[in-house]
Structures are given as structure tokens and as C-alpha cells.
Amino acid sequence: MTVAHTPGGPAARSRRPSGDGRWAAILLAVPVLGLVVFYLWPLIRTAILSVSTGNPFLGYQITGFDNWVQVLTGDELPRALLNTLVYAAVVLLGVPLAMIAAVLLHQRGLRFRGLFRVLYFLPVVTMPAAVAMVWRYIYNGDFGLLNEVLATMGLPTTAWVADPRTALYAVAVVGIWMGLGTNLIILAAGLEAIPDSVTEAAMLDGAGPVRRFASITAPLLSPSVFLVSVLSVIGSLQMFDLLFVMLGRTNPALADSKTIVYLFYEEAFVRSDRPLGAVIALVTLVVTLIVTAIQFRLQRRWVHYA
Amino acid sequence: MAAPVSVQGRNLPSWTRGAPRAAAVVALLAWSLFPILWIVLTSLKTRLEILADEPVFWFTPTLDAYRRTLFSPGAGVLSDLLNSVGITMASTVATILVAGLAAYSLARFAFRGKGPVLTFILASRLLPPISAVIPLFLLFSTFGLIDTHAALILVYTALNAPFAAWLLKSFFEGVPKELEEAAELDGCSALGAFFRVTMRLAAPGIVATGIITGNMAWNEFLFAFMFTSVDATTLPLALAELKGGEQIAWQDLGARATLLMLPALTVGLWSQKYLVSGLTAGSLK
Questions:
Q1: Among B68, B93, B119, which residue terminates a domain?
Q2: Cβ A264 vs Cβ B137: under 8 Å
Q3: What is the pLDDT along chain B (285 residues), one digit of tens a residue?
Q4: Overall domain count for chain A
Q5: Domain harbouring B279, CATH code
Q6: How many contacts does A have with B, using Cβ atoms within 8 A?
Q7: What Pfam families does the entry give (chain A) (predicted)?
């Protein structure tokens, strides 16, 4: 699917400027109201709450930055931040995997290409909560498939999601699994957009498959790879459901595997400390902004815009 | 395909050149399909087959687990299913309406403030949903909306609208404005031209947007988990709260997971073309 340029250039616009503004205002009224009620106002309210104290019954008063000091100097937040970043980094490994899959499926002469695309695509539409449960079973220490297979091969086994050393990584593997389909679709579209003539010219010049990939495909695909990476990291920073369903509340590995959103859930809903929850929510926002900004900064080094 | 290019390829029989590639395709395929297959198999097993030391691949399938999941008293899956269907449909329709209004005006009109609106739509992706959770929870509590369908419908509509607007804008831009103007010259009203020309031509894009939006609402966990408790619980929650630790009846859970995946898988496969076109359009600028 290609995206057309904005139709009706300046000429079309200047034809009825006053009418345009009025129509746009009428059409945009509901969406803009939605933005204010569901995005802007909650953000401001969260910020105010983060510098307040009180409880759900008596209300909250602004008192200062004590909550921030408490969260930032406590030992739970740094741990959760580290866990979240480790999770995001591991899930990012799914991007090269999706690249390999996209290149494999892109080659001409591959039989059943359409069928393969459909099948790879399945994880996109499977419910994360159900997927988490499936993997929880595969990882199960006693009758999980993974351990049964490892045992037959004489390899060491463990209760993957109950062992603090492995739990976070076990969840991240599922994150990779779930991301494959969407990443693949975006990267496949990027590959389609590379003109055949470029690759063919390189072929005529004697470039082998590896050289063609390194010098032609990879640079031309880099904007799509960048987009997929940014979306993957943003999604990872907000991970909650996989961890919650795969580990469960009473899991011995939970204390060492909490992500930042999980910490938010505990503060704001289990302990009902809304102000501390608000601080964690804003920390999540700041971390998301910083990590994304870093990615945009780094892209100058490796992303080639034609 | 042109003549073999690589040096080693020239001396080997032709099928071996494709072999590593085919092996890689199959390995990746196994990776993405096997977990789904495994849970379906599990759901058809008996407890003994599940507790066996070795994985069991051949067995006589039984539907007992499905019978228990669907019909045992207090299973609650059917009411979750109804909630999920209602909430997903209502929020999808609302999203398309709201986002459609915004997208159409962004695609067709020039006005002051258009730049900021577009920037915001893109930036909204960076805003973690949890930064809105507490205020919305307090707001909904005030209006008695916690644990109601309305709360989730509102939240999902708000959550999906910016992305949907971005998609729809690109689809509306794909319909030349001249076609609308031609219809108006032929005697159509502005509204008539919109419904008879633009809507009709952008229909595949609208379907794609609806399916992506619906998929997000159908699978959403965080808000459903925090904003509902008894009456408005949706399907993703039907698996979340597990009791029994390692004593879990995995065949029952397998049946439950299979039932939860089935609707989205069916709709997803049927609408794969639309989903792909939507996700692709969303990725281009």
C-alpha cells in the first residue's frame, strides 16, 4: 500500500480558506475534546498527584517533592528500571530475527510464499494473555515441554519462570515471539519498496548474496529497521501483561523481575498509594522520552535516508 | 531466477542451493507456530497424558476440558466473551467515527493548528498509558463508571483514536480530491460526495483501520485489569488470575487459551490482507 502525497496543493487550499477553517473546526471538535480529556488533563492531574499526599477517602493536597525523593532514593525503582531496560534490550534481538525472516520470505522462487506469510503472521492476532499462558506451561518446571526436551538431551533444567536468574529472560523470549509478526510486516513492506533495478545492477556488477545484502539491502532497509526498533522499545517499556500472567502474584522470582509498569501497579493499586504511583508513571514517561531520543540520535550513524 | 551467481552454487545440484534457505524458513515457521499448536494439543489431552514424563504427541483426543471450561457453573468464560465482543465492537465503531472526523479534516483542509495536531498524534505513542491510569480511575470512580462497559469503551476509543486517525488520514489522502469535486459538480451535496465517493473508495482502508483497532481492544489487558472487577471483565482477564500454583489443570487452561485465541485468529486470518495493509500504511510517512 502506498501513501499518496497530499492532494490539492496550495491552489486548492486557497480556493475557500474561510470555509475550510470552519469545517475543520467542526470536524475536529470531538477529537480535540477527546485529546484534552483523555491525554492532556490526565497528564497534568498525574503531575499534580505526584507532588501531593493524602488518601482516596479524604482527598489529596499538594505538599512537595517528598514522593519523588522517596521513589528515586528507594531500591525498588532502580531495580525495576534495570529489569525493564534489560527486557527491552533482549526483545530488540527480535528485530534482526524479523529481518532474516523478511529477507528469506522476500526471495523470489520461494514456493508457498503467501502461505508462509500468513503463518508467520499468526502471533500478531493471538491474545497476549493467552500466549503468556501457553508459554507458562512450556516453561513449567515439572511437566513443561522445554524441560522435558532438555532432559532427554541431558542438559540442565530449571523452573524457568520461577527461577529469579531466568524469569525475566524467559518472558523476554515470549516478547520476541509476539513481536515477530508485526516487525515482519513492516520490514517486508520496506523490502518491497527497494527497486529491483538496484539489486539487479549490483548482481550484474558481480556482487554475491552476502555483499548485496550488506551494501544494498541493509542500508536501504535501515529506515524500516529503525522504525521497528523504536516501536519495539516503546512497547517493551510498557510491558505488563506478559509478566503478570506468566509469573503470577506468588512467584518467588517476581521480586527480582518486576518491570516499571508492574511496580506502578503495585504502588497505585495493590498498596493504593496513588501519589507514589503517579511518580512512577511520570518516571516511565521520562524514561520513554530519553530512550527514544537516544535512538533518534544514534540513527544518524546507521540509518540511510535515500 | 537468473543463472546461479555464487561460486559454490555452480558445482552443486540445484536443490542443495535452496536447502539452507528452506531449512531456515521452516525453523522460523516452527518457532512462530509451535506454541500455538502445542496448547491446542494440550487442550485435547487427559490429565495423565499431561503428567507423563515424556511429551506426548500421539493420543486419543478428548473434549472434556472444553466441556468443563464452557459449561461448568461459575466458569464465567461466556460472560467475559459477551463483554469482550460488546466492548470491542462499540469502541471500534466509536474510534472509527472520531478518528475518521479528525482524519478527514486533516487530509482535506488547511487550517491553523494543523501542525500541532499532527505532531500530537505521533507523539501520543510515546505517552505511556499508565500516565493516564490514575486520573481516569479517579474520574470514573466519581461517575460510578468503574467496572462498567462504558469505562473500557471510552478508554479504548481514546487509546486507539490517534493511531487510527493517522492511518485513516493516509487512506483519505489516497482518494483524489478531484473525484469529490467532480461529484459535487454533478449535483452531489458535499456530504453526499463524501459518503458516495470518498467513503466508498477509502473503504478498504477503513476496514483495515477497524480491524487493527478491534484487535488492540480485544487483546487489551492493562486497563481491563485495573478498571473492572466483576461485571465488565473481558476475555484477557479470564486467564490472568490463576489459582493452584503447580497444581494447575493444564488441559483446562489449554482449552481456555485455545478458545480465547480462536476468535482473533479466525478474524485475523480472514482479514489478513487488511491488517497487513493497515500496519504497512501506519509505518510509512
A1: B68
A2: no
A3: 444 444 444 455 555 566 777 888 888 888 888 999 998 998 998 887 877 777 777 788 888 888 887 777 666 778 888 999 999 999 999 999 999 988 988 888 888 778 888 888 888 888 999 999 999 999 999 999 999 999 999 999 999 999 899 889 988 988 888 888 888 888 888 778 888 888 888 888 899 899 889 999 999 999 999 999 888 999 898 877 655 444 578 888 888 888 888 888 888 888 877 877 777 776 654
A4: 1
A5: 1.10.3720.10
A6: 290
A7: BPD_transp_1
Residue B114 lies in a domain: yes
And the C-alpha cell for A56? 482516596
Give me the phi and psi of B246, to 5 degrees please.
-80, -5
**Domain termination site, one of B21, B46, B68:** B68
User: What domain range is A161 assigned to?
Assistant: 67-302
Does A183 reside within a domain? Answer: yes
Which one-letter DSSP state was computed for residue A222? H
Report residue A273: phi and psi, to 5°. Answer: -95, 85
> From the candidates B155, B279, B285, which should be mutated to test the interface with A, based on the most A CB atoms within 10 A?
B279
Domain extent at residue B102: 76-283
ipTM of the complex model: 0.86
> Which H or E element spans position A52?
strand A52-55
| Amino acid (1-letter code) at residue B226 | M
Q: Which helix (H) or strand (E) holds B159?
A: helix B149-173
CB A39 within 8 A of CB A251: no
Instruction: Note whether A124 contacts B277, CB cutoff 8 Å.
Output: no
Same domain, B19 and B92: no
Q: Please check whether residues B21 and B119 belong to one and the same domain.
A: no
Q: Establish if A60 belongs to a structural domain.
A: no
Residue B99: its chain A contacts at CB < 8 A? 31
Say whether both B158 and B50 belong to one domain.
Answer: no
Show Cβ contacts of residue B3 under 8 Å, excluding neighbours closer than 6 positions: none
